[in-house]
């Protein structure tokens, strides 16, 4: 199967996508596990809510792919690192999961995703992640597997390393991801949503999906998402803001309404806590 055919599974007829990331256990951070302790139950909830894609690790992807009936496209995490969490270890790493090559094909993934990391004071981590992207690009060319690159500009905070919303840093990394061969890009939001059109331009026609990041207030997430969709992004990759919400199914439906129906934040909010429509 060629990369265009696989990529077409990610995006609806309107060219947009909501990918729900539940690959957080890969990174070994305890706080990320809230909401995904029972991975099968989480997958069942999400399939019922019907996002466009679900993002899983190589070791957990089969939970979704072995289910019968319609299901979202599979996005498979291709790397693991230790740059999340409060400890800020002296030695940071980001390593490709070599088995991802065969697992992605065997489980019929629509694409794989790998980080492109920029953390202050850690050029060795940036170099390592560049090497990861280049190596996976070569493999993607041989197999027809689309490559999603996740450029992350991060800065120290009280929880370890968090989002650096500086639009200049985001734009630079998004452009570098494209130059290194990304088929699609997943990037952090900027501090000011209205600036994000510059990141869309930097993607050079590649689909740009916005990353959700840390947990935030529901109204704030919906308002930010609606504003970001107006900048021309192709969709969202949200994880904890869905998984750790009190109503993950409703939050998924709300974000799908914004992504595909251009619903307002207020209209989307009404879907949270409401009965599902058969």
Strand and helix map with partners:
Elements: H1 3-8, E1 17-21, H2 39-49, E2 53-56, H3 62-65, E3 73-77, E4 79-81, E5 94-96, H4 100-106, E6 111-118, H5 123-143, E7 147-157, E8 160-163, H6 167-179, E9 184-187, H7 197-202, E10 208-211, H8 218-229, E11 235-238, H9 240-243, H10 248-261, H11 265-269
Parallel strand pairs: 1-2, 1-11, 2-3, 3-6, 6-7, 7-9, 9-10, 10-11
Antiparallel strand pairs: 4-5, 7-8
CATH architecture: Alpha-Beta Barrel
User: How many DSSP H or I helices?
Assistant: 11
Helix/strand-derived category reads alpha/beta
DSSP strand (E) fraction?
Answer: 15-25%
Mean pLDDT: 90
CATH topology: TIM Barrel
Report the strand count. Answer: 11
Report how far apart the termini are. Answer: 33 Å
Described by the principal axes of the CA atoms, the overall outline is globular
Kindly report the spatial arrangement of strands forming the biggest sheet. Answer: 1-2-3-6-7-9-10-11
What does this entry look like structurally?
The longest helix has 21 residues, at 123-143. The protein has helices spanning 3-8, 39-49, 62-65, 100-106, 123-143, 167-179, 197-202, 218-229, 240-243, 248-261, 265-269, and strands spanning 17-21, 53-56, 73-77, 79-81, 94-96, 111-118, 147-157, 160-163, 184-187, 208-211, 235-238. The radius of gyration is 17 Å and the shape is globular. Helix content is 37%, strand content 20%.
